[in-house]
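Supplementary notes for students who missed Thursday's class. We covered one full example, reproduced here. Read the sequence, then the structure, then the short commentary at the end.
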Amino acid sequence: MAHILIVDDDETMRDALAEVVRDLGHSVCLAANGTVALELVERERERVNAMFLDLRMPGIDGLEVLRRLRERPGAPTVAVLTAHAMASNTIEAMRLGAFDHLTKPIGRNDLAQVLERMLASIVEPQPSAASVEPETLIGSSEAMRTVQKTIGVVADSDATVLITGETGTGKEVVARAIHEHGQRNRGPFVAVNCAAIPPDLLESELFGHTRGAFTGASAEREGAFRQAEHGTLFLDEIGDMGMAMQAKILRALQERVVTPVGGRPVPVQVRVIAATHRDLMRGVREGSFREDLYYRLHVVPIHLPPLSARISDIVPLAEHFLARAGTRKRLSADAAAHLIRYGWPGNVRELKNAMERVAVMVRGEYIHAIDLAFLQSERSGADPLLDWPDEDLPSALARLEEMLIRRALVHSNNNRTDAARRLNVNRQLLYAKLKRYGIEVSDEKGGEGEEGGEGMR
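Structure (token representation):
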């Protein structure tokens, strides 16, 4: 049972609201104006859980009450009620921290739903998100573990790395991870988006220029290669670079020498990491990308899969982005299921933007599926097992676990040893899970396949 404060100068409205709140099983205290409301909050601050606040009242109006409550630690959750809703007071009320802005008269069901959401937003204080790393690689899917292992292997070398993947998959995050974990981490990390710079300026941006080299060159410019000396140069969207510029990049990579516009060759000590969302091999076949440059870049390839192929990483990434947004909001089970069902055409960048949006827009502590309604399109060709109804988190995780086991069995042709290897679990645990979920495996399609030792953990 919660304790609800109702603030309204209209006695009939106060009594009507109080009756509904009591019928819902909560206790009520009443205030006829803002001054009394503030006194009650101060006197009963440990008891008042939520407040329904009229906007227009004599003396201290609702907006002023909100302003004063905002200055107090542990203030109750407030829903504003008004018979005169206008853009100005709606915006100001939400800016001042109102949970919602409601128009009178309000129906019984609507009031019950709002109160339920208000009370659901009241939770124990959570640890501050200030210590969360600004950027980091998140993901325990098999694809991301492969990426992480490759980063560890190549970090200390000077080998050129080519990162491929759709737009928004996190290619620059991977490039920074290589730099930060490598022996060049004391040097600078310089990122250049080759698609964002006009072709006639790209040479100067990368290699620099001397004073007076062309009209407008009033001072000497080092260029990105020299700015990244003893560090890492990240060439993003290198697939959008013109053929003439490709030849100059190839020479710089082969000879470790750059020539500023209007100047003389200068040796450089820099590691180059390139990235693209394009199919460079196709570009080679079509004549839009140099084959020799492709192989010079493709020394160590790292491919980032789309987010829709990294189901197990979606929720951890979402929680990471919520923490980075400086919020204590959490995902409910139905919200997590909604995120998993969505196809994510914009990949990790779209997920990050979505979490930043709900961090601002959702007033409650928990984010629900309804708060993510702007993510409309469902995953194309989704496995029906993913389309689970609203349920608690253990049930949702069990469904996901069952789906992954069934998928591993299909891919391994019902060979349980191979399925266990794909799932990265030992056979005994897999057998227990098969029994738990009532999954029968026919020996006709591969049986146990247990010959030889597995050497599994």
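Commentary. The chain has four domains: 3-120, 142-304, 307-391, 394-445. Residues 124-134, 378-389, 444-457 have pLDDT under 50 and may be disordered. If anything here is unclear, bring it to office hours.
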